[in-house]
Amino acid sequence: MLLKNASVLIIDDDTDVLTAVRLLLKTEAKEVVTEKNPENLRWLLSKQTFDVILLDMNFTSSINTGNEGLFWLNKVKEFKSEAAVIMITAYGDIDLAVRSLKEGAADFVVKPWHNEKLIITIKEALKRKGTGKAAAGPSINNDSIIGKELLGESEIMQDIFYKIEKIAPTDANILILGENGTGKDLIAKAIHQQSLRADKAFVKVDVGALTESLFESELFGHKKGAFTDAREDRVGRFEGANNGTLFLDEIGNISLHQQAKLLSVLQNRQVTRLGTNDAVPINIRLICATNVPLAELANENRFRKDLIYRINTVEIMVPPLRKRETDIILLAKHFSRLYSNKYLKPVLEFDTKAMDKLLQYHYPGNIRELQYTIERAVIMADGNVLQSSDLIFSPIESSVVVDSEPDELKLSSVEKNTILRVIEKHNGNITKAAKELGLTRTALYRRLSKYDI
C-alpha cells in the first residue's frame, strides 16, 4: 500500500510531536489524525479505519504500568484493528521497544528522528502490511559487518541488531558494556557503518592503555615544542574523528583526572592542543566501551557520574558467549572457514563430539577465546574433520587444576556441586535452576547427563 493512500493516526501526549508529525505527513499521506489521550483509542478505532498508528511508549495517563506503550499496543489488537503499529520511543526505552516488536508492533522509531527515516519506516510498515509479512529483521547495508564478522542468531543478539539499526542514524552517545572478548569493538564499528557518518572517519582509541602523560597529547593533539618529545605539530584523535565517529575503548579504566579532561571537551565540543590556547571546534559521534559493570562505574570514587550521563545516552549490554549457546557453533564454523582460507586448507567441519565439547565449555575468554581455539585446531588438524581432541582450550583462561589437589577443588567438581545445590534450592525445578545458573534448560540437561545427576 502507498503512503499517499494511507490514513495515519498519531497518539502522543506531547503536542510538539503531534504538530511536527502532522506537518511532515500532511503532504505525504491521505489523512493524518492526532490524539493526545490514548484512552480515546477505542472511540477512534470504532469511528474509522487506520492503516498506520504511531504510538508513543510513555504517557502521563491513568494507566501507570511503566510501559504504557505495550499496554495500548495490546489494546489495538483487542480492538481488532489491522493497522500497522509503529512505536515512538526515547533512548532509554529501546529495550521495551524491541519487546514491542515481539508483541506485534510493525517497527519503532527513536526520538528525535530524522524526517526521511520516519517516512521510510512508515512506508516499509505499509509495504509489509500489504504483503501480509511480519515485521522484518534489521535492514543491513551491504557494507555492514553484521552477518559477516558480527554474527548471531540468538534472540539476545537479534535484539542488539535491532538496537543498532534504530540508534545508528541518530547522533546519540553510546556506551557498550560487556566482558572482554565479547565483540564490543565490532558493535561500535557496526553502529558507525549504519550511521549518517558512515563515509567519514571511524577512529578507535584504547584510552585504558594511555598513560597520564600521553592521554592529552593522544586525544587532543599538541604543538611542536609543547613538551620534550613534541618534535612536530600533531592532530589529536578528536580532531582526526571530526565529522565522524570516535570510539573510546576501555573508558572505565581511566583516572578521575583524565575523566575531568574528557568531560570538559565533551561539554564544550572543542579541543585545545597542548602548547596552544586556540580552541578547535569538534563535531563527533561518541561511542565508548568498557568491561567494568555499570554498578561499579556508578561508584563516584572510581568514575564521575556527570561523565557517565554524558557518554551513556544509550547503553548496549553485550552478553558473554556462555549466554549465547545457540551462537557457539555458528561462530565456530565462521572461524573454521576464516582460518582454513588463511592457512590454505580445505574448509574443516566438526564431528559430533567436537560440537558437544564446544557447547559444554564455559568460555571465560568469550568469543576471542573461541576464535583462538579454532585457529589453533585448524593449524594442527591432519584431516578434513575437526575432532574433539583437536579442540584445546587455553590454560590462560581455564582454571589449572593439578592431580594433587583434592577432588572438591577441581573445576568439574565445583560445577557439579553448584548445580546440585541450586537444583536442591529450587526443589528440582529445572527451569528456575537454569535461570539462576545463567544457563538454558538444554545446557543444564547436558550438564546433568555429564555428571550423572
TrEMBL record:
CDD domains: AAA. This is Sigma-54-dependent Fis family transcriptional regulator. The modification 4-aspartylphosphate is found at residue 56. Residues 150-379 form the Sigma-54 factor interaction domain. It comes from the Bacteria. Residues 7-126 form the Response regulatory domain. Keywords: ATP-binding, Nucleotide-binding, Phosphoprotein, Transcription, Transcription regulation. GO terms for molecular function: ATP binding; sequence-specific DNA binding. SUPFAM superfamilies: CheY-like, Homeodomain-like, P-loop containing nucleoside triphosphate hydrolases. Transmembrane segments: none annotated. GO terms for biological process: phosphorelay signal transduction system; regulation of DNA-templated transcription. PANTHER family: ALGINATE BIOSYNTHESIS TRANSCRIPTIONAL REGULATORY PROTEIN ALGB, TRANSCRIPTIONAL REGULATORY PROTEIN. The keyword ATP-binding applies. SMART domains: AAA, REC.
